[in-house]
Amino acid sequence: MNKSWVQSLLRLLVAFAIGLIISSLFILAVGENPIVAYKALLEGAFANKLGVFTTLRWTVPYIIVGVAATVSFKAGLFNMGMEGCIYAGALAAGLLGTIPGLPPIIHVPLCIMGATLVGMIWMIVPAFLKAKYGTNEVIITWMQSYAMTLLCSFLVTEYFQRPEDITSAAQQVRTPFIEPSAALNPIIDPYKLNTSLYIAIALIVILYVFSKYTIMGYEHRMMGTSYDFSIYGGVKTRKMQFWALLISGGIAAIAGAAETLGVNGQYIHGFSTSMGPNGIMVALMGRLNPLGLAISSLFMGAIQSGARAMVRATEVSVYTMNIMISIIVICITADGLYEMLHIKKRQREGD
Amino acid sequence: MLRRGAAPAQFFKGGEYTMTETILQLRNITKVFPHPETPVRANDGVSLELVKGEVHAIVGENGTGKSTLMNILYGLLQPDSGEIILKGTKVSFKNPRDAIHNGIGMVHQHFMLVPSFTVAENLVFGFEPRKHNVFVDKAEARQIASDISAKYGFKVDPDRKIQDCPLSMQQRVEILKILFHGAEILIFDEPTAVLTPVETDELFKAFQALRDDGKTILFITHKLREVMSVADRVTVMRRGKVITTMDISETSVEDLAEKMVGQRINIADRIMHNTNEDSEIILEFDGVNTRPSSQGKSLKDFSFKVRKGEIVGFAGVGGNGQELLVEEISGLYKHVNSGRILYKGKDVTDADAADMREVGIAHITGERYIRGISSDSTIYDNLIMGAHRRAPWARGIFMKPRALRKLAKELIERFSIKAASENVNIMNLSGGNIQKCILARELNLANELIVAEEPTRGVDVGSQSFIHKTIIEKCAEGYGVVLVSTDLDEVLSLSTRIYVMFEGKIVGEVDPESEDARNRIGLLMAGITDEKEAM
Under an 8 A CB cutoff, do A229 and B401 touch? Predict the structure, then answer.
């Protein structure tokens, strides 16, 4: 292991420790023992087969959204509209999944590609405005995200509502079930962890190869680090910005598709519990590094699955975990803090 | 006039011995900047003696602690050890105000003036004459301004706003300001960096006037010719230490340069270029006019040709359209209204930066830290830009990391970049080494054309001569070079032909070999095109 790896790991541990200590204060404040709470959390996430599979089941969408966020962050862009893309992708996959009479080998890729396409199309407007006029992408993607979430709800209620639900009392906004040929099957029944895990792993590998070995990957990274340097170096930055946002949206949509095809079997409005924002957290925690991303997704997945056990065992609220994650992200992204702790050593050459 | 004379020092000046008084002594000044691993000894036991009424120059490479020493003297920094003795009394300045009260004033490289205030208001700023104890007495301020400028023979217009004044006048206001504060010792940090040769001459005349008035002048510079022409004594610093203090009559430009870098270098590294009219034209500007940039600058009717194997120098005072010229060539700013730009006969008038990179130009940018490097990246990442998409280092959509790593290592070695490894952050390097990184990367990319913009600005003398040598080598290999520089010595000693730019136009062409090249360029730089007018 080289030095930068050790440093990354140290940085992660310090951030984690600070997050743990501060959230302990909140747990103490509600009159609970933090150690008991953390123990319950860990047990819930890893102690039994159900816990482990639930952890992994949540890890998958976090990885996918994390990759999507990384693609935009590395280019120096903020795609705040991933939540909208997730819903768009989920709905697109849910609708395409109802087409009967297709073999799985065609049906599954069709649904996923359809979702990706919808996610990319949804990003065209902010991407075009950013590349052409330098418009701030944060506001537009963010606002568009709300628009898409509401649009999905409208479309389903108005046109695609599951026929049985219209008459039944349980007025949930959801589409009919997908055909079995479109389903991403569980890896081991009856757990919800499904073959979308492979998609997530593939995305991580592609991201790694892309940023390490391709021309575009290098330019993409340099554009994020120094925009002026990239233009001067001959990088087609406008084109790059445009495609970075589109691809980010497309990948986020895959996360939605995976939830529909693998977990729910239909589009259920409200299925995403802040997956978009959490994906940003994951990407930041992983410091935009493919392996870091996998680790931070696993961490988020563990919290998602263990938090329920913790709530059952103690009086601690699930939101305490949000506090912990936020603090970890702040600590990881705060370079100043890191330097203050003298972990990073700088060598000055010459005089 | 002096209260208590220190031990009188003798020094040789213009063939006669003069008895003089030491006005200021710095004894064993040491200043260490803390650093977790390698603390920087910016000043290491520096001793210096100023004689009343002399012009004393301090020369040294970048990062040798000249500015640190001046900042200590001006109260901006406190020394770790050592003492300052002013007129025989030990003093310590907690802040610049202390220094000002003791008669020490400093003209910074970047002027500390309020742009929206008039000359008079700036002059009295901080020490304003009051009316009824509340209001600034503007009439009184104007009176002070004209009195003091008349006293020293500095032409300034008291009612003009600073933002409307040329840089040379702003500098005069700075000088008058510190004189108004009662300065007896005037410190100048690189005072001629922003001036034309004519303005420089004026400044040096002012130095003489001040000296005749009994003021003592201490100035930092790296322009050795200026030292020779204006200073009485010179102190050479190297790596935080004083190497020597000499009378100007005892030294020469070559001697000073040698003492600065510690080895003999040839400053007039001129070579004979053999180009002729038949050499292939690489770059041609044909009557190019541009729309005004955001600063309201534009190129006007710009025509020139660059042939294989020649270095075409563009001289001029900074801000006369040089950045625009470079950006037009490199494609970074494309606002051509009329005219054409041709690269080997191909029209590249509307080509953007990416297109020009594909064509294969090297662009050694003057905006070193803004676009020349990516400051958050490693040396490796900075060196491979451009090469990463070219044939031996890339195939299809993939880079060849091993080949690129080899390239980076080679470049570091060939350009003797002082770096621990290619994986450290580029900002860990010194300015000269960063510039060598840019040079290494760009020259590796050049197919036929090299655009060098201020290639040695702020670079130490050692790297400077290396960079010059490399550019000359490339020229001899048949590359066409466009050299844009505000350093007249650089343009004169490197170029085969020189164009002088003034307000976005080429105002004249000068043969660097000709006898009066320096003078003619000087006049042209000031916009004086009519020789008679200058006489």
Answer: no
Query: What percent of chain B is modeled with pLDDT above 90?
Result: 24
Q: In what order do the strands lie in the sheet with B336-343?
A: B302-307, B281-290, B336-343, B346-347
Q: Which residues of B touch A345 (CB under 8 A)?
A: 36-37
Burial class from Cβ neighbours inside 10 Å (0-12, 13-18, 19+) for residue A262 reads: buried
What is the tens place of the pLDDT at every residue in A277-320? 999 999 988 888 899 899 999 999 998 888 888 888 888 888 88
Residues of A in contact with B423 (CB under 8 A): 4
**Joined tokens for residue B207:** 């130095």
Q: Could you tell me which of B236, B104, B210, B74 has the C-alpha nearest to residue B152?
A: B210
Partner A contacted by B34 (CB < 8 A): no
Helix (H) or strand (E) holding B245: strand B241-247
Q: Do B433 and A349 touch (CB under 8 A)?
A: yes
Q: Span B51-69, mean pLDDT? A: 83
Give phi and psi for B103, each to the nearest 5. 85, 25
Helices A290-313 + A49-74 axis angle, to 10? 140
- Note if the pTM is more than 0.80: no
The residue with greater pLDDT, A124 or B168, is A124
- For chain B, which domains are there? 1-103+184-259 (3.40.50.300), 110-182 (no CATH), 281-534 (3.40.50.300)
Percentage with pLDDT > 70 across chain B: 90
Q: Which of A147, A148, A180, A178 is nearest to A162 (CA)?
A: A178
Residue A178 is given by DSSP the state P
- Cβ distance B239 to A233 less than 8 Å, yes or no, reads no
B403 touches chain A (CB under 8 A): no
The residues in B 286-345 lying below 8 A from A, measured between CB atoms, are 330, 332
Nearest to A226 among B38, B374, B418 (CB): B374
- CB–CB contact A232 B375 (8 Å): no
